[in-house]
Structure formats: structure tokens, C-alpha cells
Amino acid sequence: xxEQLVANLFRLCTGVQARWTGCEPSLEPRIYFANHTSNxxxxxxxAALPPEVRHVCRPVAARDYWSGTRMRQFLAEQVxxxxxxxxxxxxxxDNPIAQMLEAIGECGSLILFPEGGRFPGPDPVPFKSGLFHxxxxxxxxDLVPVLLDNMNRILPKGEFLPVPLxxxxxxxxxxxxxxxEPRDVFLERARQSVIALRS
Length: 199
Hints:
Glycerol-3-phosphate (1)-acyltransferase; 9 helices; seven-stranded mixed beta sheet; about 35% helix
């Protein structure tokens, strides 16, 4: 019940519209990867998913930010069921790739922001290698590009209160790692698959 109330609140605050242009919602394990311009990105993408998909999909989030206050930690752990990872100085014990693979398991999905941080530009900056390593370890997974639009105007970096504007979440056609495809080639192809959703 709490999940649905929070999802409704995020949809109300952002006016988010979900557009499934390249695929349909599915309970099959997936990785949804998106551009990242605002702290609202993860919760809004999560809220845009149908309830049954949302239930098995975990946002991957920075532990240092989401553990920063009691409220953020409560939302991350008890509502979003986020996978909180160490992004600054990971050790072999808290390897983010191993944690993500474990979270996916047989029936889980993840929301991932491959840029590794928030960037205000219209197009995502080059992706970090995490998406490539996940695709290599789990070649059976559909990797769904997602474009979040208008989020940085609703909650600009450094602001605390959202501005009432309309956001959109566009889900594109899934991609997979091709056999023998070099890391940099794959990561650029993945980035372009997000950018292409703008048109």
C-alpha cells in the first residue's frame, strides 16, 4: 500500500507520462538504463512502471546520498527497495556488479544510470563500464533504454522543492551485447539508444 501511495505521489508531482515505444511492460528480468539529470530520476522511473513490474524492479542508487537522512534511507529501503551501492571507493567485499547480479537473480529487474552521476545536458555523457559487465555476465537479459525528459527542470540540482512541470519516461527497444562486441563500442551504442528516444 505504501509503495502505491508513494508512486502516485511521484506521478502527481512530476505529471509523468510513460511511453512504451520499443517494448511492452514485462515481468521478465530486465535492466532499465536511463539518462540521469535529477535526484527524482530513479523514483520517477520506478513510479512510471506498472505496479506488478515495479514490485520486482529495484533502482540502483548511491549509498552515500540515499543514506544521508533518515527519510531518504526509509524511502530507499522500505519503499523503493533500492539496491544501495558504494560508488566512490568500492571494495571487493561490496563490489557493485556482484551485488547487482545477485539482486537480479532469476526474476528481478534493475533501474540503472550508467553515467555514474547526474549531468544537466540534454544528452547523456559517456557511460561507465558497469552496464557492459552486467551484459557480459547476463547475456540473456533485455537491456531497455529509457529517456527521462524534463526531470532536471522539475528538480534542478541543488534545489529541494519540485517545480510543477510535466515529465516523460520513454521506454525504447531492448538491446543486448553482441558476441565479441568491444566494451567501448557497446557502451556508445547503448548511449545512442537512449539519445535516439528523443526523436
